[in-house]
Specification:
The structure is a single chain. The relative contact order is 0.07. By secondary structure, the protein is mainly α. It has nine helices and no strands.
């Protein structure tokens, strides 16, 4: 009976701790978003760093890393943006957040002319919902490398997976048109 009571008390403590951590992280995340809205880069970086350091087990920390990466990329600090995105990929428990972080990471790697690293990032498994974005980005990387035939194949794969009413389909069609030929 004593063991059962101790186990129940331990379970209850752990649940309360998780809820408390999540609520505290939500408050810090709100400070982060408010700082970004107010163009307070210093406040945003402080709140983001706190989330990553003290609340890394919550869902807010990878999202904070995405926001910090965007902030760093806008400030042309691509190395810091890359670090934040790599952290989000490694630490997020949510597949969609990982996929978004990988896409942004590949974009930052493309901007830094790290083509092989970008292609490796894009080759990681991802959900079908993001397949067209991964193929489109792969096409962009291949175009930057001057591999037009491979880029066309990637854009064609992206185009084929897009629904006819998806507005992004027009963007991919323009890329295919620029390479010559018809989008199929």
């Amino acid at each position: 009976v004593a063991v059962a009571i101790a186990a129940a008390a331990g379970w209850r403590y752990w649940q309360n701790r998780e809820v408390t951590q999540s609520l505290e992280a939500a408050t810090v995340y709100e400070k982060l978003t408010q700082s970004l809205a107010a163009n307070d880069a210093k406040g945003a970086r402080e709140a983001g760093a706190m989330l990553i350091d003290q609340y890394k087990g919550t869902a807010y920390a990878p999202r904070a890393a995405l926001l910090l990466a965007k902030l760093n990329a806008a400030a042309n600090d691509l190395k810091s943006a890359q670090s934040q995105l790599e952290w989000a990929v490694a630490n997020s428990k949510e597949p969609a957040v990982k996929d978004i972080a990988r896409l942004h990471l590949a974009g930052v790697q493309l901007d830094q002319k790290q083509y092989d690293a970008a292609l490796k990032t894009l080759s990681a498994s991802h959900s079908d919902a993001f397949a067209f974005r991964f193929e489109d980005m792969r096409g962009d990387v291949l175009m930057a490398q001057g591999k037009k035939a491979e880029a066309r194949a990637a854009y064609q794969a992206a185009f084929a997976t897009l629904a006819a009413d998806n507005p992004y389909r027009n963007v991919v069609a323009i890329k295919l048109d620029a390479l010559g030929g018809e989008a199929k």
